[in-house]
Design a protein that fits this description.
Length: 476
């Protein structure tokens, strides 16, 4: 296995969250009663003429900018002809030769290393309908509500070298769509699907091996399992003296295996030809520039900063990037000069917990990045303990009040005054003679108990490391 390298290319289909479908006024919405959102245009009845949804093109251009693509100011639409029951039109309008965007790249971080994955193209196309299978009925039924829903297809170069890289790439594509707010990204509703191309080659070999395409991969975890299964199948076949046939396979995620759908011999010939009912898509340069200005700070850039510049782990960086609130709070505190690790602990700990439990944004509370930074520096300066910090935090969620006032009001300042601590230590030692004897007889964990008692007696305000030293000096 280790002599081989896995080569993966991905084709990601994402449904765009436009109001209406790609070529008609039918509502673009999931979950409506079957066949209630159809019209002569999306059913391609004779004489019906499609009109292009310009918002869908804008969205494709925005994704193109986000993935560093060249945007084609002139692109074309073509008919992709195939016969399948979920496509009553018997063709799908897509883009064959000239897509809206091409030649881009997306940077991801895997195992601490930046990998730049090439983007071959992004084109617009319409979705097909959906087949419904019901055990009570001997056959299948068709729901055409999805027919004509706008899609972008993002095609990567075969630059991906492991299932982990594929997962990181897919996660970043999904996050980018979410940041741009152009797709609802609901995987369970099929808003994002992908086709996975897998081949293997001996390490050091230049030419690519023969690839197999896996269709209908409906989740990112299924893509990971599918890639691992397919690579293993191909390597075992080669090692046994066999050869890989180019074919299209179907991934069965329940069984955890892929099966042949069609081989090269019966590959589809889509007989692409220019769509005669639609005009050439022309996007003025000013429009292309204006759409670029609409981009927010992109998640791939944030991931790179968190992982490469700050050394945050992939899992934690993802938790930040996935949430606007968490990354905003983190970024603001970082720019105010707070220690990144301390901020990270608050953001992924107490702040995250508050947001989950209340369902509210942290920015709807009285906690600001300035106050969080102040709180962190007070804890770092040992003015208050971690436990007292939590009390302050809870107050800051509820009240518009400054931290010093809370500390005074609640008497939270940490006791670092030696005489005061000494008094507490003497009292605890007096009351716990048995524990002192235990410690002197070698039961070292009795020390922890004694310090604990001191903390309790001080209502958590004693400086714990000073307390420990004082106890030791008294009983040894
Ligand atoms: Zn329609």
């Amino acid at each position: 296995m280790n002599d081989y390298e896995i080569v993966v290319g991905l084709e990601v289909h994402a449904e765009l969250s436009t109001e209406s479908k790609m070529y008609c006024n039918c509502k673009n919405e999931f979950g409506l009663e079957v066949n209630t959102r159809v019209c002569p245009i999306c059913m391609a009845l004779p004489g019906a003429l499609p009109t292009l949804n310009k918002t869908a093109v804008d969205y494709a251009v925005m994704m193109g900018h986000a993935l560093n693509c060249k945007i084609n100011s002139v692109s074309k639409q073509d008919r992709k002809n195939y016969f399948y029951p979920d496509l009553p039109k018997a063709y799908q309008i897509s883009q064959a030769e000239v897509p809206v965007c091409e030649d881009g790249h997306l940077d991801i971080v895997v195992d601490g290393e930046v990998r730049s994955i090439g983007i071959t193209r992004i084109h617009i196309e319409e979705d097909a309908g959906k087949l419904l299978h019901d055990d009570s009925f001997d056959g299948s039924l068709v729901d055409c509500n999805r027919g004509g829903v706008p899609l972008i297809e993002i095609v990567s170069e075969p630059d991906i070298r492991s299932s982990a890289e594929a997962k990181a790439f897919l996660d970043m594509i999904k996050l980018t769509l979410q940041y741009l707010d152009i797709s609802d990204c609901k995987m369970q509703e099929g808003s994002i699907r992908c086709d996975v191309n897998v081949s293997v080659r001996k390490k050091g070999q230049k030419e690519f091996g023969t690839r197999c395409e896996m269709k209908n991969v409906n989740s990112f975890s299924a893509a990971v399992r599918g890639i691992e299964y397919e690579a293993k199948r191909q390597i075992e076949l080669i090692e046994a003296g066999g050869t890989i046939e180019q074919e299209t396979r179907r991934w069965d995620d329940v069984k955890g295996e892929s099966i042949t759908l069609r081989t090269k011999e019966d590959a589809h010939d889509y007989r692409y030809f220019p769509e005669p009912d639609l005009l050439t898509i022309v996007i003025p340069d000013e429009k292309i520039a204006e759409l670029k200005k609409r981009l927010p700070e992109l998640p791939s850039k944030k991931m790179l900063h968190y992982m490469i510049d700050l050394g945050i782990s992939q899992t934690e960086a993802m938790l930040l990037v996935e949430s606007d609130d968490k990354s905003k709070m983190f970024d603001e505190c970082e720019s105010l000069g707070a220690t990144p690790n301390a901020v990270l602990n608050w953001v992924l700990g107490d702040i995250s917990k508050y947001m989950n439990e209340s369902g509210k944004s942290i920015f709807d509370t009285h906690l600001t990045s300035e106050k969080l930074c102040e709180l962190i520096s007070l804890i770092e300066a040992k003015t208050i303990s971690n436990a007292a910090g939590r009390v302050v935090f809870e107050e800051l969620l509820q009240r518009d009040i400054d931290i010093k006032t809370i500390i005074e009001e609640k008497g939270l300042a940490q006791i670092s005054d030696k005489d005061a601590l000494l008094e507490i230590a003497r009292k605890v030692i007096e009351d716990n003679a048995q524990s002192v004897a235990d410690y002197n007889n070698g039961k070292t964990n009795a020390l922890g108990y004694l310090v604990g008692q001191c903390m309790k007696a001080s209502k958590g305000k004693a400086n714990p490391s000073m307390m420990k030293e004082l106890i030791l000096s008294l009983i040894e």
